[in-house]
Amino acid sequence: MKRLLLMGLLLTAIFNPTTQGALASSAYGALTIEGDNLTVEVRGVGVFNTPITLVLPVGNYTVSAEGQVKLEAKVFVNASKLVRVEFSTVEPDELVEGNLTILGVKVTYDWWKHYPKYSSRPSLGIPRGCGGAWSPFYYIDRPLPMTLEDAGDTIAKLTINNTITPCYLRSGIQDINGKLEYIFYTIAGPFGTSGIALKDTSFLTPLSSVEVSSDVELVNGYLYNVSSTSMVTPFTIILPVVTQDVYNVTGTTTDGDTITINHIPKTDTYNLSVGLNHTLVTAVVKPRPWEKYGISYSLRTALELIRVREESVELYGVRVNTTPAASFEVVGNAKAAGVSPGTIYLPEGNYTLTAFTNNSGVTVNFSVPETRELNLKLKPLPARLFFNVTPSNASVFIDGKPVNNRSVETSPGRHFIHVTAPGHVAENLSVLLAPNESRVLKIGLKPLPVLSVTTVPSGALVSIGNKTCRSPCMLALEPGRYTVDVSLEGYMNASKTAYLEPGKVVNVTITLEKVRKNAGTSNESMNSDTPTKKLTKIPAPAPSSGRNSYGTTHKLLALVVVILLTGIALRRR
């Protein structure tokens, strides 16, 4: 029903009757969307099947298409211009490949953005060790307050506000498989990063690292659409991986004071992207603690998926007058809608206008630019719909009201039809009926898609939204994208994504790995099932420009000020 309601917005979103008489054609442009039998949504306007051409007021529009890969184009419709958006589809692994869990892939074209390609890699000159990280205010407050740090020329590190952040070194370079050198109580905000050195803690934030590359080198990488200087492909990003909410974390500073963190939220899924020109490729990734991964993007393929071009178009005004006043829709070379009396603007072509109010209506064919005015009189002639629906026990609703699933007499105009049956995918459609029209609608509902989940070993708990089962198992679900979460005692949790289409069976196989401790760190070992092991005898860091080196009293006072400033900044947002 949501799609049908969005379709209904077309009547008010495209042409406002209180202003259309005063608007000239220079206030409008056209948007053409092309693709291979796609269902697309123009945000704030409606849902349509491709190809479609809309006449729209000048402004910004977002066009999206769901599928194995989500496509989104953010474009600007200018006066007397036609913006043509052409979508193509591919499989997710043609865009992004990696040895970590990838939950979804999205390609975005942004009219106003330009993602650069560099001729050479920037040199930051960051010193080795844990104190040399540089944080030039890459502040993100979604989904949590966090800051990106440049930990090296090709190494970025994400730090999250109000957490315990470890630093591992190998040959003086930050590496999650290196030796644990220091731990810090971290405050991250728009000011950058501040840390207090700890000598022990009840929880050490697990880390993961991802090496990011693309088929076009020296382009920026982005985490939640934010980048740091070191994030130029190829690069490595170190990410915190908190697999469950953690409460009442304590730590002891090098001065012997106790710090308490009431809650560290679950944080194990990230949006990781690369971009070039106007195109951004985003993968939703879910790394595991203490693992190293690689992920590769195909930007050249992504650039072909959304093509946008602008061309001139001449729009001609057509004045519509009806007796009595009525809503009307125009279909043909372009689509438009409005309320009479009023003026619409259309490109050259042949059109059909249907005007309707209550049980009266009228339909007329006309051509542009030959026709400049339409004067129409509505007649009280109803329309009739005949239904041929399967299965035979399907229920039919017109404009939200149940009707006979064989036939119904209704008023001319736009009607929204909802057909549903147990075990089947509901069908939503809209029809525009002319006065005295009889139309037969053949609607065959497809069975619900089935998701079949197998795990190695079997017997794992499978969670898909609010539904659970033990593997191997099968679930009938509504079409759409799902994340399959799997857990089994003694094994690492795992996830996979699946996209379900009506009437299809999708098989998902997940091989579980046994829980293992972080290799090479006997005193500080952690895994997702033991998140609160006590750490002791961690050496204090030497003073560094990258971290606070004041006494604990000064540090705590500074943190109080920082927390207040952060609260003020977040409230202003």
UniProtKB/TrEMBL annotation:
InterPro entries, A to Z: PEGA (IPR013229)
Species whose genome carries this gene: Thermococcus kodakarensis (strain ATCC BAA-918 / JCM 12380 / KOD1) (Pyrococcus kodakaraensis (strain KOD1))
Protein name from the UniProt record: S-layer-like array protein
Residue ranges annotated for the PEGA domain, each copy included: 449-515
UniProt superkingdom: Archaea
Compositionally biased intervals (Polar residues): 519-530
Chain segments carrying region Disordered: 519-547
Signal peptide from the UniProt entry: none
